């Protein structure tokens, strides 16, 4: 049993199979690469806007402006990026439909997209509008968004030949926390990261042979959990120690702002790994 769209919607197989022979799939197909460039430029736009917005909620970046001012400045660009990625995604999807229909990475990606839209439009933007305060609706949206995020990561983690893509998410989380932490926390965290990377190098080249997958697969699964624990601990220290400050968000909003950045990274990583399955 796989977790690809074909397993949930077997009744639409005939419709999916003819999509690239009809408009717009047939029309897009010869220009797939050009449309995919549009897909990635939209990703850059929405990713940049999401970073500026959520970093401000975390308490770094454009701190001369209040969160509501940052929200007002980035909103048009965020909307343009989201519309661009959805339109180009659907168009390149219709020109290569069987690949998506049979892809577990695509399932992870669509769950991630739902989570990303909910956490961005239901949580980060409303919280920024209120300069960091989480209203009741935003709290409900946060619970739903995190549930979808968990499902997306769960599918990503169990999908064979796709799950190495989770290293992109861990790497992004590690760099994000390194960027945000300050002072002694940053130094200790960086030293621990370097120690973990050295350990992993030793596991791959000294303890086991680089092609000894029987040992390396479980070792890497343990390593990803150890990295995750370190990153969460450092982020936790940053969230608690940075306090609320003037015009600042509380710990819950900050934690959700981290999630709102990483959910887009997860969606993008799953998008990239469609090609590898
Ligand atoms: C309706 C929504 C979307 C659809 C239907 C869609 C569809 C696609 C398709 C068909 C591909 C090419 C897969 C391949 O043949 O290898 C792709 C690649 C990709 N997508 Fe999406 N996409 C959507 C939304 C998104 C979103 C929201 C993101 C980012 C947050 C994203 C990020 C990517 C990335 C990074 C790639 C890999 C490009 C490459 O290097 O080849 N997509 N997407």
Q: Keyphrases for this structure?
A:
single chain; 277 residues; binds protoporphyrin IX containing FE; mainly alpha
Your description of this structure?
This protein is mainly α and 277 residues long. It has one domain (13-276). It contains twelve helices and no strands. The chain has helices at 5-8, 13-17, 25-28, 32-58, 67-95, 97-101, 104-129, 136-158, 166-180, 183-207, 213-241, 251-273. The chain is globular, with a radius of gyration of 20 Å. The two termini are 15 Å apart. The model has no long low-confidence stretch (mean pLDDT 96). The structure holds protoporphyrin IX containing FE. Protoporphyrin IX containing FE binds at residues 36, 39-40, 43, 85-86, 89-90, 92-93, 96, 99-100, 113, 264, 267-268, 271-272, 274-275.
Write a short abstract of this structure:
The chain is an all-alpha fold and 277 residues long.
Q: Helix share of residues? A: over 70%
Number of domains: 1
- The count of strands amounts to 0
Bound molecules: protoporphyrin IX containing FE
Along the chain, the helix and strand elements come as HHHHHHHHHHHH
Major sheet characteristics: none
- Mean pLDDT, all residues: 96
* First and last CA, distance: 15 Å
Residue runs with pLDDT of under 50 for 5 or more positions: none
The total of helices stands at 12
* Shape category: globular
> Helix/strand-derived class?
mainly alpha
Q: Please give the radius of gyration in angstroms.
A: 20 Å
DSSP strand (E) fraction?
under 5%
């Amino acid at each position: 049993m796989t977790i690809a769209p074909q397993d949930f919607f077997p009744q639409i197989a005939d419709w999916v199979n003819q999509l690239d022979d009809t408009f717009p799939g047939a029309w897009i197909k010869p220009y797939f690469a050009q449309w995919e460039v549009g897909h990635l430029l939209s990703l850059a736009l929405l990713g940049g806007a999401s970073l500026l917005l959520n970093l401000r909620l975390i308490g770094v970046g454009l701190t001369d402006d209040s969160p509501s001012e940052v929200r007002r400045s980035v909103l048009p660009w965020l909307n343009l990026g989201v519309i661009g990625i959805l339109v180009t995604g659907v168009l390149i999807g219709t020109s290569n439909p069987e690949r998506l229909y049979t892809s577990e990475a695509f399932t992870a990606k669509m769950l991630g997209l739902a989570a990303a839209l909910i956490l961005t439009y239901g949580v980060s933007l409303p919280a920024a509008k209120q300069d960091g305060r989480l209203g009741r609706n935003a709290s409900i949206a946060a619970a739903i968004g995190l549930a979808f995020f968990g499902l997306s990561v769960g599918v990503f983690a169990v999908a064979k030949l796709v799950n190495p893509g989770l290293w992109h998410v861990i790497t992004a989380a590690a760099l994000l926390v390194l960027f945000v932490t300050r002072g002694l926390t940053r130094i200790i965290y960086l030293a621990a990261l370097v120690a973990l990377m050295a350990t992993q190098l030793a596991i791959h080249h000294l303890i086991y042979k680089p092609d000894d997958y029987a040992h390396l697969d479980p070792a890497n699964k343990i390593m990803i959990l150890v990295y995750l624990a370190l990153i969460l601990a450092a982020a936790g220290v940053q969230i608690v120690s940075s306090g609320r400050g003037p015009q600042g968000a509380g710990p819950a909003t900050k934690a959700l702002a981290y999630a709102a950045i990483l959910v887009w990274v997860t969606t993008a990583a799953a998008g990239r790994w469609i090609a590898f399955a």
